[in-house]
Fold:
Amino acid sequence: MTLPPTHPLVDGRTSDAALVRAYRGSLTPHVPVWFMRQAGRSLPEYRELRAGGDMLAACLDPATASEITLQPVRRHGVDAAIFFSDIVVPVLLAGVDVRIVPGRGPVLGTPVRTARDIADLPELDPADLAPVRDAVERTVDALGATPLVAFAGAPFTLASYLVEGGPSKDQLRARALAVADPDAFAALLAWCARTSGAFLRAQVEAGASAAQVFDSWAGSLSRESWRTQVARHTARTFAALDGLDVPTVHFGTGTGPILDLLPHFGAGVVGVDWRTPLDEAARAVPGWPLQGNVDPAVLGAPWPVIEAHVLDVLERGRAASAHVLNLGHGVPPETDPEVLTRIVRLVHEVTATGAST
Ligand code: 1CP
Structure:
């Protein structure tokens, strides 16, 4: 299926947006900017709306998920919305017992540790993604010319939560499974790729104008393990979008050693964490649009320090064929939202020459 004529990328609502143009490597009137985890705990209006309610229930209530997605767009004037959901939403919708524990993250009722556990994982029925489609449709209607970014977890990042049973420091059990039982590990990654892929495709079909895969924990793997055991499954997540012509972004943390490999596995744009300067990243992936990479640790500093850092990121980003300013990872919950608004203004002002790429 190709995108329907009423899709915002097709009917022209977002096809000329700075974000979409930059992701496609075209000239933009200013460097576009959005922030990973821009929706969420840094915003008082989010805390008020959530007020102790269950996180996954909020994700599955279309009106709530849509409102939370729109909050940072209204407040900061960012160039994109990122759909408010979580990488484990499709896992829950497949029928796996998973919760999000406040202050901690996704926790499994029963971790998935053996070949038997993996074979028993239920398949996601795409019809069960209806609340996701509904939330995306409402959001896209409200956004008008601002593009919505769809997202999903990359197979290894999702698999880490399933195997570990929750957040972990270095994904040791997941990496141990890769060594102890490579076939079971491959079967698990294939399940994750199907599940994440269906989640991503549903968002794009419902109106998202770009798609980002979060390979957040790719950096805990060796280059060799990522290349030989994981990369083809990440590529399958992107391949779920076959036939839908939307720009795609691959983001991970600690991916410095594998940056040069990323463009070969399905993404058109490379997201860079805070560890690799963008000019260095541009040398690793010459000609590719880059997204990043303001250090989240800088957001609590006095404004002149933040400003100097953002200007440095912009300067280094000029080495790329196109640049979308973002953070090198998510917004820390304690961030003063006023700082994010000031960054958006700064980026728009200093790059509004009409000649930025
Ligand atoms: O603006 C946005 O980006 C909000 C939408 C969003 C996204 C893109 C949420 C809401 N989660 C995610 C993706 C996500 N979830 C990733 C990939 C991005 C990244 O690397 O940060 C990962 C790894 C998760 C898993 C997860 N969910 C964690 C991390 C746990 C760990 O291992 O360190 C946490 C804390 C959650 C819960 C969660 N998801 C989202 C929010 C706002 C929250 C906090 C819930 C709350 O209010 O308590």
The chain has one domain: 18-351. The domain at 18-351 is CATH 3.20.20.210 (TIM Barrel). The mean pLDDT is 96. Residues 36-41, 50, 55, 82, 84-87, 100, 102, 105-106, 151, 157, 167, 214, 216, 330 surround coproporphyrinogen I (CB under 6 Å).
